[in-house]
């Protein structure tokens, strides 16, 4: 076993170390070289892959990369790196692991250990297959392989939104229109333009926009009844010394103002009469 106990080496150094051991150790053909890489510099996965490429045939990894200090080489990262690139650039290396169990194994370790997986963790993080940037969303809607080097189904993750789109402040028109069609709303032209800018203003205040948010927005912004009257001003005078009086200004659909004043048995009665 060849460890990088404090995670200090760089991938080219660690790979060369394994290659030198393999080339200069008598009887090395009778043993399996194993690696154990720590993540103090964030290089544990890269060092593990470099060691495997140089001749190591056992790699010590942990699910979710948990371990001492900054953790160990992450099983899911090493396995999926070999699955994605092993045949092309890593000499045909493979693991034989059923990758569709990765997400469930990750969640089980997270639950039992109490160590939460950060959202941006590669492969198993909550955001690993989420796309918020407008140009990325546009690419995903046209062709998923544009911005996904692996499928979420490869690790056993099944998402309701097949394009992985998360609407937020960086989302563009294409993503928003696609999402609204998914929800059953077909809007175009000026209605969509107005809705898009309303959506952007809300997205500036919220991290992500949910389906309920969109439905509320579309109802508030687009599907409104035709304006007949608009309340311009309301002034009410009331007290124990006299009748309640209300003055109301209404604006009709043509923009013309109508002002009326009336007395009543109370401020509400006076306002309605006016």
UniProtKB/TrEMBL annotation:
GO cellular component, one term: chloroplast
Domain of life: Eukaryota
Entry-linked PROSITE patterns: PYR_CT
Keyword Hydrolase: no
Gene3D superfamilies: 1.10.238.260, Aldolase class I (3.20.20.70)
GO biological process: L-leucine biosynthetic process
Start and end residues of each Pyruvate carboxyltransferase domain: 1-103
Signal peptide: none
Gene Ontology molecular-function annotations: 2-isopropylmalate synthase activity
Keywords (A to Z) from UniProt: Amino-acid biosynthesis, Branched-chain amino acid biosynthesis, Leucine biosynthesis, Transferase
Transmembrane segments: none
SUPFAM superfamilies: Aldolase (SSF51569)
Protein name, entry field: Alpha isopropylmalate synthase
Organism from which the protein derives: Ipomoea obscura
């Amino acid at each position: 076993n060849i460890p990088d106990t404090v995670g200090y080496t760089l991938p080219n150094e660690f790979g060369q170390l394994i290659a030198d051991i393999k080339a200069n150790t008598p009887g090395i053909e009778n043993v399996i070289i194993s690696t154990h890489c720590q993540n103090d510099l964030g290089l544990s996965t890269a060092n593990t892959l470099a060691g495997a490429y140089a001749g190591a045939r056992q790699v010590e990894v942990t699910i979710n990369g948990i371990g001492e200090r900054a953790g160990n080489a992450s099983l899911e990262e090493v396995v999926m790196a070999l699955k994605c690139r092993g045949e092309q650039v890593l000499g045909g290396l493979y693991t034989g692991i059923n990758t569709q169990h990765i997400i469930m194994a990750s969640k089980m370790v997270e639950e039992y250990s109490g160590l939460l997986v950060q959202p941006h963790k590669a492969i198993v993080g909550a955001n690993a297959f989420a796309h918020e940037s407008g140009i990325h969303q546009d690419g995903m809607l046209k062709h998923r392989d544009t911005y996904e080097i692996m499928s979420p189904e490869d690790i056993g993750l099944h998402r309701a939104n097949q394009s992985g789109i998360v609407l937020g402040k960086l989302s563009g028109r294409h993503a928003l229109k696609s999402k609204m069609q998914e929800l059953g709303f077909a809007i175009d032209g000026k209605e969509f333009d107005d809705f898009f800018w309303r959506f952007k203003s809300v997205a500036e205040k919220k991290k992500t926009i949910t389906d309920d948010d969109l439905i509320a927005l579309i109802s508030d912004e687009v599907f409104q009844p035709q304006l007949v009257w608009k309340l311009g001003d309301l002034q009410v005078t009331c007290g124990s010394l006299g009748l309640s009086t209300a003055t109301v200004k209404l604006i009709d659909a043509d923009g013309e103002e109508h002002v009326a004043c009336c007395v009543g048995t109370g401020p509400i009665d006076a306002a309605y009469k006016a």
